[in-house]
């Protein structure tokens, strides 16, 4: 199965624990790509993926575990793991204002905070995953859940293959702080 979501939503923290509970290996596609040297660092120190190379490296790694299964997660999952290699994709959603606080603490630039907050607000990752994985995709809201409660919610989504509708835009008009990002 796959786990996707906006930056810092908790993909790595939570999917390591989910994999443990399910007795499956855990793979972070970014790590696989880095280890395979599928890309390089730009002049700001950001890793830029070579998508074709990264896709091949991820595919090869996943094929090794294809019988047992795996929990694979990471940014750009939809670009790196084909639909045929996954039974289910869980997209983690979180209130953009909670993510905003997390990004501030991490020391992201104002521009990077805005890009990521707007991404979650409009459901960018979710839209990409639904486009690529279709009926294999569910999304769940883990806002305000601590790590263990979030893990339980993910396990329930896997078991039931059911998610929920998450739409931050629907309630954005009552949140001044969010509206600022849309103006
Ligand atoms: N449910 C949670 N509640 C509060 N903090 C959390 C929760 N899950 C993760 N965090 C914290 O948020 C930060 C980002 O978590 P993590 O690295 O797992 O996210 P990620 O989605 O893998 O990010 P990236 O896209 O950068 O790989 C970490 O400091 C982590 O401890
Ligand atoms: Mg991560």
Q: What features would you describe in this structure?
A:
The protein is α/β, with parallel strands linked by helices and 183 residues long. The protein has a single domain, classed as P-loop containing nucleotide triphosphate hydrolases (Rossmann fold). The protein contains 10 helices and 7 strands. A 5-stranded parallel beta sheet has the order 2-5-1-6-7, sandwiched between helices. Strands 3-4 form a two-stranded antiparallel ribbon. A hairpin with a 5-residue loop joins strand 3 and strand 4. The structure holds adenosine-5'-triphosphate and magnesium ion (MG).
Strand content: 5-15%
Number of domains: 1
Instruction: Give me the CATH superfamily.
Output: P-loop containing nucleotide triphosphate hydrolases
The CATH architecture? 3-Layer(aba) Sandwich
Please, what is the average pLDDT?
Answer: 95
Which structural class is indicated by helix and strand composition?
A: alpha/beta
Number of beta-strand segments: 7
What composes the largest sheet?
A: 5 strands, parallel
* Low-confidence runs of at least 5 consecutive residues: none
- Oligomerization category of the chains in this entry: single chain
What is the percent of helical residues?
Answer: 40-55%
């Amino acid at each position: 199965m796959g786990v996707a979501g906006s930056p810092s939503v908790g993909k790595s923290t939570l999917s390591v624990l989910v994999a443990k509970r399910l007795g499956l290996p855990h793979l972070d596609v970014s790590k696989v790509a880095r280890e395979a040297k599928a890309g390089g660092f730009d002049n700001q120190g950001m890793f830029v993926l070579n998508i074709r190379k990264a896709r091949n490296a991820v595919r090869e790694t996943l094929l090794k575990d294809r019988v047992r299964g795996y929990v694979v997660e990471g940014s750009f999952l939809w670009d790196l793991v084909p639909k045929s290699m996954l039974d289910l994709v869980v997209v983690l959603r979180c209130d953009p204002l909670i993510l905003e606080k997390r990004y501030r603490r991490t020391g992201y630039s104002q521009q990077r905070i805005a890009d990521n907050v707007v991404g979650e607000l409009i459901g960018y990752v979710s839209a990409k995953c639904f486009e690529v994985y279709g009926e294999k995709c569910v999304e769940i809201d883990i806002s305000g859940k601590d790590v263990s409660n979030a893990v339980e919610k993910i396990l329930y989504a896997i078991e039931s293959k059911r998610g929920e509708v998450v739409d931050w835009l629907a309630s954005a008009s009552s949140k001044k702080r969010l509206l600022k990002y849309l103006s």
